[in-house]
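Exercise 7. Given the components listed, write out the predicted structure of the assembled complex. Treat all entries as one system.
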Amino acid sequence: MYALIDCNNFYASCERVFRPKLRNKPIVVLSNNDGCVVARSQESKALGVKMGVPIFQINDLVKEHGIVVCSSNYTLYGDLSNRVMTLIKQFSPDVEIYSIDEAFLKFNGFKYFDFDKIGPEMHKVVIKGIGIPISVGFAPTKALAKVANKIAKKFPERTNNYYIIDTDEKRIKALKWTAIEDVWGIGRQHTTRLKSIGVHNAYQFTQLNDSYVRKYFTVVGLRLKKDLEGEPTIDFEDIKPKQNIATTRSFDVMMENKDDLRERVSTFATLAGEKLRKQNSNCELITVFIYTNRFRQDLPQYHGSKTVKLPFPTSSTFELNKYAQIALDSIFEPGYKYKKAGVILMGISQDETMQLSMFEYENPKHKILMNVMDKMNLKLGDKIKFGSQDLKRKWKMRQDSLSPCFTTNLNDIIKVNAISNDYL
Amino acid sequence: MMKERFLITNRVSFIEFDYSDTKEVPYYDGGIPAGFPSPADDFKELTISFDKEVFGTSPSTIFCARVTGSSMEGAGISNNDIIAVDRSLEPKNGDIAVCLIYDDFTLKRLHVNKDCVWLMPENEKYKPIQITDNESFQIWGIVTHTLKYHRKH
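Answer.
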């Protein structure tokens, strides 16, 4: 048996843990730079706020209903996520953290487990210990655990926040209830194809024959079908290092000046390099792209992108930055107003598999220096920069409504009153 | 003391307690030696980790908070002290608790009777509060430790 644990409206729930006044209030959390809505509380969903909508488009709704708008505070969400994951590890030694707010648990020898006890216990431990509400789905396969979780989430009162698929009857009923677009791993294109052949729910998908599924939905689709039929086919994946790493951002103002872009690209290369070193990898290809604002069709449009092959695999920010600037030089066109840029690292290999060319190799001091820099930046909060980065931090991500880092910064911890209370 | 690591997907930072580099305070089983070599030096390997002491029991459910006001002076908790609050503990009579009253955090000692809860201050300038309306009251967490700083000049 598997369990899928999923935190309800995770980002919004995190904002509420230390700000109880936000309970029952509609909340939206914005993407980096306060652009679009990336998370909504139940109340905001009920008001019809759509995922991904640019915040300026719903200003009236925000005012009218007093929607609480939060910049994304990943420091807080990451810490609370880590706490939730640590707590649920007491229920099974086999845990696969699937995303910031979801984890699969594996229960071997399930006849010894009473899931009707474990489900409510999980919910209680997490809501009491951290203050985050969760839903739990139990089933013999991962894809079915996803389905069970959805049922628990949809009917919290009736299910008591957990649902178990442990009979074929329950499985079929649940699959008939699940719309095909809500099935784990079925994307928009697959949905269109499936609907065109009359498949509207997950049960109908399992009734297709294997060779047809394999032909149109590849072996991945076939594994999914088996999993939905109750035959465990999708097991815990080994956590693989990412095969490409991207750092891209929109700017809050449009930039015409090459030096300004230089600074942004340098910063993105630095951040991407940090991510690369975190997973102990090197990369061989670096892509830089720059875009004008496609929402301003009244302005001349241009986008440039250039991929440079590095002479050897590296994770040194010096090298990444050097080649990122070369790429930028080759694509920069004067006279345009740029709105977005990004750096993407590809050709990623693990550090120990480094293939050096005969005569070209990295200055060995780079690795030591990078290591020291990463450690110091971690301690001091990104104080060590490259000369090409913005040293005075003229440029800052827009985070107008950032909540305090309640759990990771002593200056931000909650205040508790030991003064007279005139409530009563 | 604390070590951050980042998920490789996006810039999410995690805090984890890293016991390997805590600043440990040498602890002498036989008092503090002064001036001359002491036989206690042989027992120096006994050390205290405050992190372990405060967070070791349940690092996932313990949060820090800062106290405002003096109503808990009698319990040794003063204005501006930092307290460690464990949300996972079952409240017992006599515990000092962070409570939510109408969504405000307040610090009191719990006094549980058969039929109601009293919130007791530890300072005679303040009055006890009787909880009659459970709707607007919640025990948020139990105070386990206080961190004070005594050099305020």
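Discussion: Chain B is about 5% helix and 40% strand. The CA atoms of residues 3 and 16 of chain B lie 6 Å apart.
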